[in-house]
Amino acid sequence: MAEALYLQDGNSIDWTPTAAVTAGEILQISDGRAGFAPTAIGAGIQGAVQVTGLATVAKTATMVMLKGSRVWWDHSANAAHLLQVNDKDFFLGTVQEDAASAATTVIVSLNSKPPYTVSLGDGFISVPVLTAAKNQAIIGHREGVSLIIDATAEAQKVDALSIRGVALDTPCIAEALICVNDNGGAALDVNIGLASATDATSADTIAESLFCHIDGNDLNIFLESDDGSTEVAATDSLADYVVGTPFLVQWDLRDWADVQVYINGVNYLPASVFDIEAATGPLKCLAHMEKTLDASLGNVTVMRLGIRAFEE
Amino acid sequence: MAEAIYLQPGNSVDWTPTAAVTAGEVLQVSDGRAGFAPTAIAAGIKGALQVKGIATVAKVVTQTMLQGSKVWWDHSANSANLLQVNDKDFFLGIVQEDAAYAGTTAKVALNEDTPYTIGIGDGFISVPVAAAGVNHHIVGHKEGVSLVFDVTAEAQKLDAMSPLGIAPASVCLVEALVCVNLNGDNAAFDFNIGLANGTNATDADSITEYLFCHTNGSDLNIYLQSLDTVTTTAAVDTTVNFAVGTPFLVQFDLADYSDIQAYINGVNVNLASDFTLEDATGPMRLLAHMEKTADDSPGNITVMRFGLRARAE
Predict the structure, then answer these.
(1) Which of A177, B3, B96, B168 has the fewest beta carbons under 10 Å from its own?
(2) Cβ of residue A6 closer than 8 Å to a chain B Cβ
(3) ipTM of the assembly?
């Protein structure tokens, strides 16, 4: 035969299900992509599933889905979800329009994963601080970083600051998927979000920042901001994390004078005014873990940290 | 002019070859993608190459190509291959349906590089163990990780475990492309890669549920082993050897958790052993784990990619 023969345009894929598939059903095809059946397919009968284009899909009714968010198909609940868990969930696509918490549907670009405008995955700057530690580490991932502080009783700092940032008032949504693997002792501080720079010892001394903040030995998720003019000190969001379970923080920067923060799709501290309007920027992605002189451990995987800008 | 003017949908791209191209020929376009010519193009004449869609392509006849496998175009042999080598090979796409070992064709989604359902590139958990060593490293990649021991005479452990796992009985393909750059120099060194329900500070064999491809220091054999709450299949030599510096592809087809099929470089190597996770409670996560007992053995392994792709049945 020739080296290649054209078969199909690839927007839909042949699919012969073991069990009957109903019209509109979403399933995962053999190359890992999401597909949905525009029409019903009988058991053992070859049909086709759509793998490209925009679709209106069922969503979890307790999550705000901001446009640009990645969503997974919750296999057990049969609805789009902002988080993947340890069962059969699979990547569905990217949200095209904001969907309210109570909404039951969302518009999704199937299997589309556009790159962040700015991301740690594009490379980052790190200046580790240690004296004697042997098991401290900064490990880059495709879109994130792992930060590890070891038990040596000394001040340590590990960080990852994106090379590029966004200018003041750029409409964008920043997001971080964070898994705290070991939250150490009270001397430990973790800050993740946007900042104008980094610091060798304390993220609190950075001039301009918009952070999700974690204290050692504390499961509270705090939120804070500082633009050099207005500071909102670390405030307990009242959302807690679980060690070993990733949580998603999203900052909606369509209004830099009143940034809205979402954790796992829920708007936290809406009455707090996280105002970074007076920042000079540029604001970059920053993951920063520090401890003062102490034997505390710290181990956090930032699975992704990026900013997606768009026109208003 | 306007900032942009629509030109083409992009499913095919213009191509003016220097030498004549025959109908069906596969070649690499200037942006690095694979393309094929649906019709012949004469030398110096502008034609078009298809870069999207599903195509039936020639395949190498000595590899099983499991659905969900990435394939490259073997430039010298003019056929799809699971492995890229150091010549002009280029990425072709993803296999859509299982293609048998002796099959001569495979259905491929051109240039699709679909994400793993769970990939080590999505971020992983590491807890390095060293007491005095300073040149041990864990280095993350786009879809993989490098693990590097130094020659300090002490116990060391390096690992990378995915935060998320998969529920037992989920049908999936697990694959790892592994390059041993510098093997351990004695039996104090062990490397395991595959699925596990946790990690361990000193010894991967102490993990309670796993499915591993295993290598030893000073030994080129590739072993397989599995353990769930009921059944232990101790490390079995696949009789396939690796070469230092040459990547090898390990794939576990978990269509049947009571009889998991393993493939190395597209060859089914299950022998008579049954590798099972049927009685695992999971969730089963991706784990790459390198350890040595008190010894000055080096060790340097690049896991070029490591992920699992689930599918409906």
Answers:
(1) B3
(2) yes
(3) 0.92
| Residue A24 CB-density burial (10 A; 0-12 exposed, 13-18 middle, 19+ buried) | middle
Structural domains in chain A? 12-110 (2.40.300), 118-309 (2.60.120.200)
Chain A neighbors of B38, CB-CB under 8 A: 6
Does the domain made of B118-310 have the CATH classification 2.60.120.200? yes
Site of tokens 């520090």: A290
pLDDT at site B7: 86
Q: What percent of chain A shows pLDDT beyond 90?
A: 97
Write out pLDDT tens, residues A163-203. Answer: 999 999 999 999 999 999 999 889 999 999 999 999 999 99
Asked whether residue B1 carries a pLDDT value surpassing 90, the answer given is: no
Q: Which of residues 150-179 of A touch B (CB under 8 A)?
A: 150, 177, 179
Q: What is the mean pLDDT of chain A?
A: 96
Buried b (16+ CB within 10 A) or exposed e, A59-96: bbeebbbbbbbbbbbbbeeebbbbbbbbbbbbbbbbbb
Pairwise CA distance, residues A120 & B268, whole Å: 39
Q: Buried (b) or exposed (e) across B9-36, using 16+ Cβ within 10 A?
A: eeebbebebeeebeebbbbbbeeebbbb
The answer to whether the beta carbons of residues A149 and A184 sit under 8 Å apart is yes
Whether the pTM exceeds 0.90: the reply is: yes
> Do the Cβ atoms of B110 and A10 come within 8 Å?
yes
Q: Does A132 touch chain B (CB under 8 A)?
A: no
| Cβ neighbours of A19 (radius 10 Å) | 10
The answer to whether B185 contacts chain A (CB < 8 Å) is no
Instruction: Answer yes or no: do A30 and B311 touch at CB < 8 A.
Output: yes
Note the CATH number of domain B12-110. 2.40.300
Is the separation of the CB atoms in B168 and B285 below 8 Å?
Answer: no
Which residues between 276 and 305 in chain B have a beta carbon less than 8 angstroms from any beta carbon of chain A?
282-283
3-state SS, residue B121: helix
Q: Which residues of chain B form CATH 2.60.120.200? A: 118-310
What would the pLDDT profile of B225-264 be if each residue is shown by its tens digit? Answer: 999 999 999 999 999 999 999 999 999 999 999 999 999 9
Inter-chain residue contact B166 with A135, CB threshold 8 Å: no
For residues A192 and A147, the answer to whether their CB atoms sit within 8 Å is no
Which two three-digit tokens encode residue A295?
């034997």
Of the candidates B24, B129, B310, which has its C-beta nearest A5's C-beta? B24
Min Cα–Cα distance to chain B from A228, Å:
33
